[in-house]
Amino acid sequence: MATYLHFAPALALAVAIGPQRIGWRLTLAGAVCAVLPDADFLLYVLHIDAYSGTYGHRGFTHSIGFALLVGALGALLAGRHPVRSRWLTATFLALCTFSHPLLDGLIDRGICNAWFWPLDGARHCLPWRPVPLQGVPLFGPDRLRQELLWIGLPLALLALAGAGTRRWCATRPSRGQASAMVVPTQRTDSPRALRQHRRQAVRAMAGALLARRARARACSHCFSKCE
Ligand SMILES: [Zn+2]
Hints:
Mean pLDDT: 85
Distance between the termini: 42 Å
Helix content: 55-70%
Strand content: under 5%
Bound molecules: zinc ion
Order of helices and strands: HHHHHHHH
Number of strands: 0
Number of domains: 2
Largest sheet: none
Structural class: mainly alpha
């Protein structure tokens, strides 16, 4: 397990998606979800399963299925939100929960996760496990340094990329808005000029509507609401 930074993905995702949409309560819930899978330690203490079984440590609680379950239950419990959809709540909590087995899986230790529970209870290791556990004490500055390098730094980059994309989506002027701001300057005395100005106004409105739709589609990728 990661000793210090299991909660960090919740913070990084909240910054990337947008603190206004996620809020501090959901961020806190995400941090709890990010450490929740290790509650399976109780199953070991109660002698329900050992380390290698489906219901032992890093068993079913360290799976994609468990993360989806936690996300769905969390969204149901959270109820309606004025800004955030239930899908976003569920996705955020599921990602936070799934970050736990993902970080565990990156550690170079023999225990593997039951990723595909309930379809498959067997343990599988990731092919790439760069975070060193062997030879590094479980607590202390060496451990913290390794986690900051392999977990903290990528998460900080993710948060910065998400925040940057949101800002870009929110401030980028669209062609439709620019054309909508064009004000006819010619006199409209003649019927012909009047018709021309009407056509220009209709074209500008249509352009603004199309651009607004395109921006909404583009911004849905960065989970940002663009006005
Ligand atoms: Zn774990």
